[in-house]
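WARN no homologs supplied; continuing
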Amino acid sequence: MVGLTVAGVVRMASEDDKAVTPFAAALASDDNVPTTEGAITTVALTSLPPTTTALTSPIPTTDPVLLAVPDPSAQVISAADALGMLDEITVGLEHRGGYNRDQFAVWSDLDGNGCDARQDVSAEEAFTTIARDGCGTDGTWRSAYDGLTLSSEAEVEVDHVVALKEAWESGAWAWPVEFRISYANDTADSRTLIAVSAVSNNSKSDDDPANWLPSDPAAVCNYLIDWVAIKHRWHLTMDQTEWEQVRTELESRCI
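OK structure emitted
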């Protein structure tokens, strides 16, 4: 049995309730096969199972022009906003098996500026920039998870806030490859990829907030809010423990 959230209500699902993401539902329908219009890969989300909620966030795209435009959903949101988004996220069993990092093409240059997504994030998040040589940056960084100051780009690791394996198990397993590449190299939303220290990145690994939170107490609320916003934007599911823990932490720490 697993809890499913529909229109803000958590209910228990039976084995017949096949927990499916909107993307998986669309791909499973003969009427909703991916279509290509110019350089943009799209999929129509018109037939959703009764255990899912149609979300209004944008469908991922690999079009370089669209990726270069900041997504309006990337604006700062409050903990209350995150709780509202949380109620729209489907709760279901994780999809186990089949994950391979190579399926996400990390790191790629989707905006065509000559630098890959990791290099773009590293440059963007430098606390101070001394110089930039091509795609390399000399400066200092503040690690988002533990507050450490990093004085060399070699010390900087760019982390997927919602790890690739977590994304895979939460719905990316059913995405077309173009969606996975867009997710892994998403520089349009500043929440998806962040600069952190190696020690904090290794500590977090592929965990969700039920198993790991930033060691810097001042970073916890932003981390939780970003986690919810990313899962909401990309139509990813949460497992029951994850969903309950995120709600508990937001309500107890951030409201």
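The two ends are 31 Å apart (CA to CA).
OK
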